[in-house]
Amino acid sequence: MKGGDVRILITGGAGFIGSHIADRLASRGDEVLLLDALLPQAHAGAPPWLREHRLVVGDVRDGELLRELLDGVDAVCHQAAMVGHGVDPSDAPDYASHNDYGTAVLLAAMHAAGVRRLVLAGSMVVYGEGRYDCPTHGTVRPGPRRAEDLAAGRFEPACPDCAAPLRPGLVTEDAPVDPRSTYAASKLAQEHLASAWARQTGGSVWSLRYHNVYGPRMPRDTPYAGVASLFRSALAAGRAPRVLEDGAQRRDFVHVTDVAEANALALRADPAAGGLTALNVCSGEPHTVGELAATLAEAMGGPPPVIVGGARPGDVRHVVASPVKARAVLGFHAVTGFADGVAAFATDETREPAATARAS
Ligand SMILES: NC(=O)c1ccc[n+]([C@@H]2O[C@H](COP(=O)([O-])OP(=O)(O)OC[C@H]3O[C@@H](n4cnc5c(N)ncnc54)[C@H](O)[C@@H]3O)[C@@H](O)[C@H]2O)c1
Ligand SMILES: [Zn+2]
After folding, report:
1. What pLDDT, in 10s, does the model give residues 81-116?
2. Taking CA atoms, which of 32, 106, 248, 277 is between 20 and 30 Å from 66?
3. 328 phi and psi, to 5 degrees?
4. Separation of 59 CA from ligand 2 center, angstroms?
5. Which ligand gives the minimal distance to the CA of 121?
6. Which of 41, 83, 280 to mutate for ligand 1's pocket (most ligand atoms within 8 Å of CB)?
7. 2 Cβ contact list (under 8 Å, min separation 6)
8. Crossing angle for the helix pair 102-113 and 182-201, to the nearest 10 degrees
9. How does residue 39 score in pLDDT terms, banded at 50, 70 and 90?
10. How far apart are CA 42 and CA 36, in angstroms?
11. Atom 8 (ligand 1) nearest CA
12. Nearest to residue 77, comparing CAs of 15, 3, 18?
């Protein structure tokens, strides 16, 4: 697809990441149309930064509405999802409905409208734990960590075959999937649905598996907010950020403007027709959660982090990823470094707390 006269539908376009994609695409001259249900779990109202875009408030599960909106659309950038940890079994119907039924309705409507290009917001949560190597057994897949190990401060997963300590490495897109929460399962099911659709229609799908995204407009104070936002809210209130485990768990923190650029590149690149291509969207620069807390505390002039131990059920130890494939096939590389991005995050605008969070 060439530039100019291109119309893109961004679902979840009022959200944290979707709104940055909208700005990026509009700045290069694409016509963007946003669809967002403004879920009360996510929003306390329409966010102020959407004024310059056309937003349709509606649900991605509404097939009739989609068929209207898809008229004249060249590609869909599917960001709409219910996000969060997904560890409460009673939330499963909502995750499956928004994320999987919603994706199914979207794909059927795209087929009806003859729209063949999809960029899907994938997630690193499909991997479960990251990559680990045992000196004897090579690359292994450690199972969930045991509650008694976590309680005793044994945070590193051991080799499932010989219990030896493991060396963490960079996860690549061909790693086996191991979703460990309802949310993760729903994100993986989105990929499967989109992959089947591509085979049936000859359409093409990029699944951009984002790592830990942070930056301006990140939601604030919700139970579902990412760790950067929780640390920031604590510091803004004069409190020390509370770091779980021993703080040495590693993640890849990727700036939201880089994630928007990856989407912009994917919307113009041609993946293999008739299939889904998954790509890690990450910085390629792993950092620990403790480092994130310390860097942010320093930038905000707040108290240093407190290590509180423990771990939430389903938390994984290290998930850091290889950026090589996204660079090779999309020419994508993150340009915002950790030190600069985190320092700026100290004063970035953040999104109002969600209605439900305020009410509780
Ligand atoms: N933030 C991260 O670190 C991260 C990491 C990996 C993947 N992702 C994925 O990126 C995408 C965007 O996430 P975000 O962080 O911007 O979250 P967000 O909550 O800010 O944005 C999601 C948006 O989707 C909307 N939405 C949800 N269900 C909908 C429905 N049925 N119909 C219409 N709109 C609906 C919400 O109102 C919200 O505005 C999601 O698909 C998420 O799974 C995010
Ligand atoms: Zn071993």
Report:
1. 999 887 789 999 999 999 999 999 999 999 999 999
2. 277
3. -70, -40
4. 48
5. 1
6. 83
7. 268
8. 20
9. very high
10. 11
11. 123
12. 18
Expressed in angstroms and rounded, the spacing between residue 253 Cα and the centre of ligand 2 is 29
DSSP code at position 126: G
Task: For residues 108 and 101, give the distance between their C-alpha atoms in angstroms, rounded to a whole number.
Answer: 11
Closest ligand 1 atom number to CA of residue 83: 43
The CB density around residue 3, as the number of other CB atoms within 10 Å, is 9
Average pLDDT over residues 140-156: 90
Output b/e per residue, 318-344; b: 16+ Cβ within 10 A. bbbbbbebbeebbebebebebeebbee
Neighbour order of strands in the sheet with 275-281: 54-57, 31-36, 7-11, 75-78, 117-123, 204-210, 275-281
